[in-house]
TrEMBL record, chain B:
<dbReference type="Pfam" id="PF07987">
    <property type="entry name" value="DUF1775"/>
</dbReference>
<feature type="signal peptide">
    <location>
        <begin position="1"/>
        <end position="21"/>
    </location>
</feature>
<dbReference type="InterPro" id="IPR012533">
    <property type="entry name" value="YcnI-copper_dom"/>
</dbReference>
<dbReference type="InterPro" id="IPR038507">
    <property type="entry name" value="YcnI-like_sf"/>
</dbReference>
<keyword id="KW-0732">Signal</keyword>
<protein>
    <submittedName>
        <fullName>YcnI family protein</fullName>
    </submittedName>
</protein>
<feature type="domain" description="YncI copper-binding">
    <location>
        <begin position="22"/>
        <end position="162"/>
    </location>
</feature>
Length: 538, 167
């Protein structure tokens, strides 16, 4: 490793060291700050002053404003427990986030953050960026749909040749092309995600390498890279004939399926949910990907294709069971109540998917029970027609899935209740939500508008399925990568089981972590951890 | 190299962390089936404010708990919700909560609050001693967090004590 590399590694290690210590064992604590945490000032403050409960030594102090980092003039740590820094005059209006790291008298490094607003006009989005946001999310949905199709054709084809029957050279080339398309589509998702996060102009932002850098902070980054790697392996395996290539194709498919589970609703549910989603994707690819090779087989060999069709069906029946169970678990997990099936966009999409899947199942049953047994006697025409219909419905289901995975499972908040549908669709590009479950409690977090600047953070708490409000609810916001640790805010109850905090703390775009503390009784506290991304506002 | 550095710093964090000041109990392990004196150690106030009250929720696994009075502090026990056990001296009631209230312990001074407890008959259990520290100006530090996952780092952990075989 080169010297600069070593230094960087040491820096990272040091940061990590601080992060762990400050998170858990904070010792010297902030007693007073000026401007105070959470304050809205009428003018530009002349200085930033922090007083601690014991003597401290400053390691780092920085301030981020609406136009990026603010240069601090003359950081002084003159009198023991007091730190102060002169601020440049006439700070632009907006939200400011100060982060510090100090070493307290006993030698333990401690970090903290505070937020204040200068003439804090709430950051609002202008109309054009709104349109851009919608364009980015639509582009994301289209890319996802095309990727699913490529995944079904390429990876499904690889599964078919490994598990059912080797396919001809022509089909293999077609499947390899589809898999290659999948690689390109997965990689294309990166700038689109970055564009949505930074609310860049559409589509000119696509050519900006900054978009990929922005996306690299999001979970989508890993998902896309792993999926692309899996699809690349699938594409390579499809070009080559033979046993090893067939096995490599299966491996590539599994990698791509795991990649798909690394981001999105399932990723928030832990390893079990991710495994479930990966299984769902694998099985869907097997089923939908078999249509094309089956059609080719029927056209070429007619009734002699019967054994292959039976081999496919033997695996397809347990596969469909896995598909249904994993799909149902995913949907149930995100459904707050049964009526959400009709009242939320997410629920309606789930209903549409159930309808599509049911149609597919009926056709599959007809194929299996009537058309396949009749194949040797009546020829392949009827079965071919039915498989073509299955393919069309399968495409529709993939389309629904592409929109579904980008749709929030939760209805927009009370204020918007009158036009839930419109508002919800509109905000999809930015509004963030996350769900966590811990000791019988379900914690839904909604960040609106999910852009840097003033945000409304809403928590909906349920215990064993019913809304319930503990005595106190505290929210701790961190973005460790940006040096922001432990912004603590007490949340106010608005209605039973709903707690809200509105403030300027989310001033930096990127991945934020929220630790929610529920004080259930004097002696009982439950903590939930949630993560969400914040996009650049304005 | 990177891994080594990260490993070292994590180790450093662990060591430095363990030495830091929390409200704790003076013994990490207690022998099973014994009467033992334990002390709740209060090394500082709440973010600089003086301590005015210490409230302990007695672990339900204990078969007895008697608190020692401290001069200048009102000792109260809450029996509702406590357990009743058959002891060698007849039926014993274990309080649910013990509190020392109304004192004033400045941030830069140290105090111990002592209890005599009767430990569970069998070894193996981990007992949590959640403590609420009330301070001047309405400040409260709740030393009540329990890990929800192994190795989780807590800001205000409830002190845990393991019950070991009687030696």
């Amino acid at each position: 490793m080169s010297l600069p590399g070593c230094l960087r590694a040491a820096g990272v290690a040091l940061l990590l060291c601080f992060a762990t210590v400050t998170g858990a064992w904070a010792h010297a604590s902030l007693v007073e700050a000026n401007p105070p945490d959470g304050a809205t000032l009428q003018g530009s403050p002349p200085s930033l002053a922090l007083r601690f409960d014991e003597e401290v030594r400053l390691l780092d102090l920085h301030l981020v404003g609406p136009n990026g980092p603010v240069t601090l003039a003359g950081v002084a740590h003159g009198v023991g427990d007091l730190l102060s820094a002169r601020l440049p005059p006439d700070l632009p209006n907006g939200t400011y986030l100060a982060s510090w790291r100090i070493v307290s008298a006993d030698g333990h490094p401690v970090g903290g953050s505070l937020a204040f607003g200068v003439r804090a006009a709430p950051v609002t989005r202008s109309a054009p960026s709104d349109d851009a946001g919608t364009a980015w999310s639509t582009a994301g949905e289209v890319l996802r749909f095309l990727f699913y199709v490529a995944f079904a054709l390429g990876a499904g084809g690889a599964l078919f040749r490994a598990l059912v029957q080797e396919v001809g050279r022509g089909e293999r080339r077609g499947m390899a092309a589809a898999a290659l398309g999948g690689v390109v589509l997965a990689l294309l998702t990166l700038p689109v995600q970055g564009g949505a996060m930074l609310a860049a102009p559409f589509p000119s932002g696509l050519s900006d390498p900054g978009m990929i850098v922005a996306a690299s902070t999001s979970t989508v980054f890993l998902r896309c890279l792993v999926a692309a790697a899996g699809m690349a392996l699938v594409a390579t395996s499809l070009i080559v004939a033979g046993k090893v290539a067939r096995a490599a194709g299966v491996l590539g498919t599994v990698i791509a399926a795991v990649g798909l589970s690394l981001s999105g609703h399932a990723a928030a549910g832990g390893a079990a949910m991710q495994a479930l989603l990966a299984a769902h994707a694998l099985v869907a690819a097997y089923w939908l990907g078999a249509f094309w090779p089956l059609l080719v087989l029927l056209a070429r060999e007619g009734s002699r294709a019967s054994p292959a069709v039976r081999r496919f069906a033997a695996l397809a029946i347990p596969a469909v069971a896995v598909l249904l169970v994993s799909g149902a678990i995913q949907a149930l997990r995100h459904m707050p109540a049964w009526d959400a099936l009709v009242t939320t966009t997410y629920g309606q999409l789930v209903l549409a998917k159930i309808l599509g899947a049911s149609l597919l199942l009926i056709l599959a049953a007809v194929n299996h029970l009537r058309l396949t047994p009749a194949l040797p006697t009546q020829g392949p025409a009827a079965l071919s027609r039915s498989i073509k219909a299955e393919g069309l419905i399968g495409l529709a289901v993939l389309g629904i899935t592409a929109v579904l995975s980008a749709t929030s499972p939760h209805a927009a908040q009370t204020g918007d209740a009158g036009h839930v549908h419109a508002v919800h669709r509109h905000k999809e590009g930015t509004e963030r939500n996350a769900t966590a479950r811990v000791s019988g409690w379900t914690v839904h977090l909604l960040v609106s508008p999910g852009l840097t600047g003033s945000n409304r953070i809403t928590l909906r708490l349920e215990r064993d399925g019913h809304p319930e409000g503990p005595a106190e609810v505290w929210l701790e916001l961190s973005q460790e990568g940006a040096g922001v640790v432990g912004l603590r805010r007490r949340m106010s109850p608005t209605q039973p089981g709903t707690f809200v905090h509105e403030g300027p703390e989310l001033a930096i775009p990127g991945p934020w972590k929220a630790r929610v503390e529920l004080l259930v009784s004097d002696f009982e506290q439950i903590s939930a951890f949630l993560e969400f991304d914040v996009a650049a506002g304005r | 190299m990177t891994r080594l550095l990260i490993g070292l710093s994590v180790l450093g964090a662990l060591i430095s962390g363990a030495a830091l000041a929390h409200v704790t109990v003076d013994q990490p392990t207690l022998p099973a089936d014994s009467y033992v004196r334990i002390a709740i150690r209060v090394p500082h106030g709440c973010e600089g404010a003086a301590t005015t009250g210490i409230r302990l929720q007695v672990p339900p696994e204990l078969r007895g708990a008697k608190a020692m009075p401290v001069a200048g502090w009102a000792l109260t026990t809450r029996m509702e919700g406590g357990v009743t056990v058959q002891g060698e001296h007849g039926t014993a009631h274990v309080p649910r909560e013990v509190s020392w209230q109304g004192g004033n312990l400045p941030d830069d001074q140290y105090q111990e609050f002592v209890l005599l407890v009767r430990t569970p008959a069998e070894p193996g259990a981990t007992l949590y001693f959640p403590v609420v520290q009330d301070c001047e100006g309405g400040k409260v530090s709740r030393w009540i967090e329990r890990p929800s996952a192994p190795g989780e780092r807590l800001r205000y952990p409830a002190y845990s004590v393991r019950i070991t075989p009687k030696g």
